[in-house]
Design brief:
Pfam families: DUF8082 (PF26309)
Number of helices: 7
Largest sheet: 6 strands, antiparallel
InterPro entries: DUF8082
Helix content: 40-55%
Organism: Thiobaca trueperi
Number of strands: 6
Order of helices and strands: EHEEEEHEHHHHH
Protein name: DUF8082 domain-containing protein
Shape: elongated
Strand order of the largest sheet: 1-6-2-3-4-5
Distance between the termini: 61 Å
């Protein structure tokens, strides 16, 4: 069987082309070190990142280290979730070896403090109960700042009234 492994620069070039042409779909990558990576595009915008058990910006940090692999793009609407991510140009720059987003050079600090995470989870629990911990585990790792964390979590609330109450509760506790 032939080895279809290509350098990551070639995968990135194809991803850039797909983005520029406004493609919608999912890219699946099997890295040369036998790990899985996934990206979702929505009309050319990168809306989901997964690699090495991580999602969002944490996945981006890992993906920037990929040396090569095999890949396939599956066009069409993807069932992968949509994350609150930085703009696609910044993601592509980071994948090409540029500075990591949301962090100063040489820093990979978490954008949320433990206090912020705790407040977000306790406030969300007021509306959804004990599943708040699971929802925070799903959404907070991809948050680039407090505002994006709040936006991601408020999507889990069924009504606009609850969204407003959640926002007010979080802001009052974090003053």
């Amino acid at each position: 069987m032939a080895d279809n492994t290509v350098p990551f620069a070639e995968i990135l070039s194809d991803l850039r082309r797909l983005s520029e042409t406004g493609a919608t779909g999912a890219m699946f990558i099997a890295t040369s070190d036998n790990r899985s990576a996934q990206l979702a595009l929505d009309k050319g915008r990168i809306v989901y990142l997964y690699h090495a058990g991580r999602v969002g910006l944490r996945a981006l940090e890992e993906m920037a280290l990929i040396q090569g692999g095999r890949y396939r793009f599956q066009p069409g609407n993807s069932s992968l979730p949509r994350l609150d991510l930085p703009d696609t140009a910044s993601i592509l720059a980071a994948l090409a070896g540029g500075p990591m987003l949301g962090a100063s050079a040489g820093s990979r600090a978490d954008p949320l403090t433990p206090t912020q995470k705790s407040v977000l989870e306790s406030c969300l629990a007021e509306f959804v109960g004990p599943i708040a911990g699971i929802l925070c585990d799903d959404h907070l790792p991809s948050a680039v700042d407090l505002d994006s964390a709040i936006k991601a979590l408020e999507r889990e609330l069924p009504s606009e009234v609850q969204v407003q109450q959640f926002q007010n509760m979080v802001r009052s506790k974090l003053r």
